Amino acid sequence: MGVLPINRLLVSMSVPIMLSMLVQALYNIVDSIFVSWVSENALNAVSLAFPVQNLMIAVATGTGVGINALLSKSLGEKKFDRANLTATNGVFLGVCSYVVFAVLGALFSRTFFLIQTDVAEIVEGGTAYIQVCTICSVGIFIAISVERLLQATGKTIYSMYTQMLGAIINIIFDPIFIFVFHMGVVGAAWATVLGQVAGACLGVYLNATRNTEISLSFKGFRPNGAIIRRIYSVGVPSIIMASIGSVMTFGMNKILIGFTTTATAVFGVYFKLQSFVFMPVFGMNNGMVPIVAYNFGAKKPDRMMKTVKLAMCYATGIMFIGVAIFQLLPGVLLGLFQASDNMLAIGVPALRTISFHFLIAGFDIVCMSFFQSLGHGVLSLVVSLVRQLAVLLPVAWLLSLSGKLEIVWWAFPIAEVVAMLLCMIFLIYAYRKEVKPLLSDG
User: Fold this and answer.
1) Regarding predicted confidence, which is higher, 106 or 246?
2) Alpha-carbon distance 126 to 49, whole Å?
3) Helix (H, G, I), strand (E, B) or coil at 300
4) How confident is the model at residue 229 (pLDDT cuts 50, 70, 90)?
5) What is the average pLDDT across 393-416?
6) How far apart are CA 401 and CA 264, in angstroms?
7) Rounded to whole angstroms, how far apart are CA atoms 106 and 104?
8) CA 365, CA 235: separation in Å to the nearest integer?
9) Could you tell me which of 350, 253, 295, 222 has the C-alpha nearest to residue 51?
10) What is residue 441's predicted lDDT score, i.e. its pLDDT?
11) Which residue has the higher pLDDT, 337 or 238?
12) Coil, helix or strand at residue 248
């Protein structure tokens, strides 16, 4: 982390995570493709369930960001006892998060769908889908926790193995459960949780046998309040920031369903497709954060800033590829989901309009991860709040008052521009506060 050439280090850290996240994006898309073969209402049920699934991932990954940042910083400072405490407390927090979502899913899944729609097929299918995904969600929380331990110590190749195993199992069992066993939407949920549990088991095994930098032992374990507070000092802003996506999706679904249920199906398909563009960028950021955090702890500001600059270049390049695909092939992309003529009429202009915000989203995402790696998770939170709630939803609602669905999609590029301006201001602040003093000391 502290001596390898930055480009080589960033690529070696990021590529395995990017590949595994691409596989995850693939199985998310395959999941929806198979469900779309059942019916458009089945696809709508999965689309409306997305905010709950995203919230679970937000809590797991947000906690993981806190674990990753503290663990990497502890290793950079050679504080190995604190690193071990961080690892064990991090897994403990994952288990606690699972228990909360299992209870909420068992009690409130139907209520969540009734708030959004009164279409019986969507409510019944969606309720069953979410109950399986929440009550059996232990796999995703454990998997993400142990993956972050591997990433924080530079063993991203093993993290890739755990994610790929889960994705492959999901892809294999999706058609079996949905069509062979005639389980429909519920079959997709069972395939998902089966893959998550498999990935978690492999992650635990790899940490126990291959991750020599830390010792993951629960013998005589007691929660450490100081460590948990430090994890959540970075993790909570990350959780809230990622959870904002759930609120935004729920709000957009409410706006769009006022036009037609097909619009919500299009929005759900967009979220599945855009993950193919965003997941590699998130994967690269997951590789970037421990590098920046380690060198921050080791007081090597030049390596920190070179890492950030390279990450921005790579992220922008990925986003340009995404824009080109969405602009040139929107009909082909929607055709994967058995799109009707009505869905194509709504979806083609939607994908082309929304994708314009990719052009600057890479810069914004890297900036937010940089803030987190310096322990300024609140800055990332503010950007995300402004981007997805304070700007996006109000603008989308105002545009919807025109009665023209096609202009509602412009809320995404508008929100991204505002977020970029805010990121530039915060980047200058973070540089002057954290990086510049290290340069002076050097």
Assistant:
1) 106
2) 6
3) coil
4) very high
5) 96
6) 17
7) 6
8) 16
9) 253
10) 66
11) 337
12) helix
Q: Provide the whole-model pTM.
A: 0.81
- Contact predicate 189/34, CB 8 Å: no
Token duo for residue 323: 């824009």
Contacts 24+ apart (CB under 8 A), 333-342: 333/269, 333/273, 334/266, 334/269, 336/29, 336/33, 337/32, 337/33, 337/36, 337/43, 337/269, 338/36, 338/37, 338/40, 339/269, 340/40, 340/262, 342/260, 342/262
- Provide the token pair at 38: 């059942």
For position 320, what pLDDT does the model report? 96
Nearest CA-CA partner of 374 in 305, 309, 274, 275: 305
> Contact 310/66 with Cβ under 8 angstroms?
no
Measured in degrees and rounded to the nearest 5, phi and psi for residue 387 equal: -65, -45
Assign 271 a pLDDT band (cuts: 50, 70, 90): confident
pLDDT at 30 over 90: no
What single letter denotes the amino acid at residue 407? I
Token readout for 381 is 């939170």
Quick check: 32 and 268 in contact, CB under 8 A? Answer: yes
Q: Residue 107: what are its φ and ψ, rounded to 5°? A: -95, -35
